[in-house]
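Title: Prediction job returns without error message
Component: structure pipeline
Severity: low
Priority: P3
Assignee: unassigned

Description:
Job completed but the reporter wants confirmation the result is attached to the right record. Sequence as submitted:
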Amino acid sequence: MKKLVLGIAVLIFSILPAMSLENLNFKYGYISDNAKVITQDDYAGITAIIKELQEKTTAEIAVVTVKSLQGQSIERTATEIGRKYKVGAADKNNGVVILVAPNERKARLEVGMGLESEITNPKADSIMNTDMVPYFAKGDYSKGIYRGVASTANLIAGAYGIELTNTANAPAKTAGAPSSSKKSNVPFWAWPIIIIAGLLGIGKKGNFGGGGGFSGGKGSTGSW
């Protein structure tokens, strides 16, 4: 009887990550802000960067915040998100998942197999520790995510030999600006993109290309 109970418990806990991932809703195609930490302006700016990156390189970035990791490792959860939602182009697996768990004070930048040679672990560590964590330590998750997406996108764009215009609107690398600033860095044309995406009904599965090739363990984990 004890073995049966133990077996059932193991089965339940083994499927918990998959069950929690069912609740992700990539509202406008690329972002699932379940912890509600991304401001409206930053949401638009981040979306504009990811969309431009996708259009110019086919590479994709998925941004996810969660209320809780439900006892699971952030590394495993980020990998499963990339696989389940098929982040990256189908024939290139050039996706990145940026996962932030404010409650556990952890973040993960998970790199798809097609970008492992370009976003090495040391480069991912640099983005995490110099662009993201300083903002997170101040409680400014929105700006930290924005900055992390911009730096990641620029690194990918450089590997493809192209330049991105929308990353210029991202927050400064040093976390010196007040998080209470109301000034919008979003270009005027970014708002129609957000509105149209919503009207087209891009929903739970996001606007990803069908890749999902994540080997796991490639990227960087940060804490604060």
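Comment from assignee: result matches the submitted record. The beta strands are 31-33, 60-65, 95-101, 106-111, 219-223.
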